[in-house]
UniProtKB/TrEMBL annotation:
This is Receptor ligand binding region domain-containing protein. Residues 1-19 form the signal peptide. Residues 50-150 form the Receptor ligand binding region domain. GO terms for cellular component: membrane. Gene3D superfamilies: 3.40.50.2300. It comes from the Eukaryota. Keywords: Membrane, Signal, Transmembrane, Transmembrane helix. The keyword Signal applies. It is found in: Membrane. The keyword Nucleotide-binding does not apply.
C-alpha cells in the first residue's frame, strides 16, 4: 500500500514535467531530510535509506519511471526544527529541488510542510507522521504521506 501511494505521488507529480537535462530524459531532483541517529532502529536513514533505490528499481521494472533520471541529495536533520528549516530552504529555494522526502518526525514535517506551501514544492512524509492535521489541504496542500491518518 505504501508503495502504491509513493507510485501515484511520483507519477502525478512528474507526469507533465519538462526535460531539464541534456539527455532525452527529464531529471527529477529529490531532497531527502533524513535522521541518521534519531531512532536509528526504526526511522534512521541507515536502517530505511535502502528503500529508496529499491522502490525506484521496482517502479522502473514495472514501467512507471523508466523515462526519468533521478538525483538525490540527503541532509541529516535529526528531526531538529532549525536544521529542518535550513534543509527545507536549501531544497526548495536555493537549489530548487523538484520534491522533498521527509523528515520522518511529525513536528519537523509540519515545518517542512509549511515551507512547501510557501515554495509550492511537494513533500512526501514518511516515518512517524500519522497526525490527522496533515490531511488539512488548506494548510498542507503539497504534503502527502506514505502512512494514512484517520482522516484520509
Amino acid at each position: 500500500m505504501r508503495l502504491l501511494h509513493f507510485s501515484i505521488f511520483i507519477f502525478l507529480l512528474f507526469e507533465s514535467k519538462s526535460c531539464q537535462n541534456n539527455t532525452a530524459r527529464p531529471l527529477i531532483r529529490v531532497g531527502i531530510a533524513a535522521a541518521l541517529k534519531t531512532q536509528n532502529g526504526s526511522i534512521g536513514w541507515g536502517y530505511t535509506g535502502g528503500a529508496v533505490p529499491l522502490a525506484l528499481q521496482y517502479l522502473k521494472g514495472h514501467g512507471y519511471l523508466k523515462d526519468f533520471d533521478f538525483e538525490f541529495h540527503v541532509e541529516y536533520t535529526e528531526c531538529d526544527l532549525s536544521t529542518v528549516v535550513k534543509a527545507g530552504v536549501s531544497f526548495m529555494k536555493t537549489n530548487d529541488y523538484d520534491v522533498v522526502i521527509g523528515p520522518p518526525c511529525a513536528p519537523a514535517l509540519k515545518m517542512m510542510g509549511t515551507l512547501s506551501t510557501l515554495y509550492k514544492k511537494p513533500v512526501l512524509g514518511w516515518g512517524f507522521v500519522t497526525e490527522s492535521e496533515f490531511s488539512d489541504m488548506s494548510r498542507f496542500p503539497y504534503v502527502t504521506s506514505v502512512l494514512p491518518s484517520s482522516e484520509t
